[in-house]
Amino acid sequence: MTEARADGRRQRFYWLLRWFSVQWIAAICAVTCLTAPAALACQGEPGTFALAQMKDSKLSAKVGDILANTTAYFGVGFDEVCVSDTLFNGRANVIDRELTLGARFLRFYGAQENGMASIIVLLAHENAHVYQYQSGWLQQQTAKAGTLRCVELFADYLAGGYVGRLIAKRGGQLDEGTVARFFGESHGPSIFYGTSGMNAGMAERHGTASERFFAFSQGVERLAFKPANDRQQAMVEGWAVIRKDLRCG
């Protein structure tokens, strides 16, 4: 073999080795550089971990897909999503855009035949809180609303708009019976009865089950077919209804 051919082979080997090195580093970074910040952000309290670290990867993927859809609907979402073994439902940090979901809630409803519907409502409700804050509505209305209960009821209204859009896409009629069937129940979403019917403190903060379902149903009816540019007016009208009928100022 001539010296020129040997040099050529060495050059090709060098660049091939370098290409593999870049690909290997990129592959490592895809795992560590992207997931490490979320994982670290979810280690602030014991029993809390990133959504992607759930043992049930199928459920984790479904939750991620739902959040992608609610983010597209509201135009804003969460930067970090965590799961907690100690929290039951969900908790949103609207300033830092961090969401913490209860592991027991996800596992319980994820195992039910129609349980994903209740998970959808929870995620839409929490995403609605981020929208309330990022749109400036929360800062403008909190003083008028007077209580946290009214802010929560309006988040139910906004969540209803998202679910109404889902029902409409599936060809369903937007009436109370169809909404109930969406949840696989005759009396409406169990999430409202489960979270507000267990103790008086929860009802004071979020409203009673019937109040929550009323606000939610109003959102289904008023927001489902509204394009994004008409949604702001529908929100104003919906808030007026909630203020009048649910004693919010």
State the gist of this model.
By secondary structure, the chain is α+β, with helices and mostly antiparallel strands. The protein is built from 11 helices and 4 strands. 35% of the residues are buried.
Give an overview in words.
The N and C termini lie far apart (91 Å). Strands 1-2-4-3 form a four-stranded mixed beta sheet, sandwiched between helices. The chain has helices spanning 3-41, 57-74, 103-110, 115-134, 137-145, 148-169, 176-182, 190-196, 200-206, 209-223, 228-245, and strands at residues 48-50, 80-84, 90-93, 98-102. The chain is an alpha+beta fold and 249 residues long. Helix 10 (209-223) runs antiparallel to helix 11 (228-245). Strand 3 (90-93) and strand 4 (98-102) form a beta hairpin.
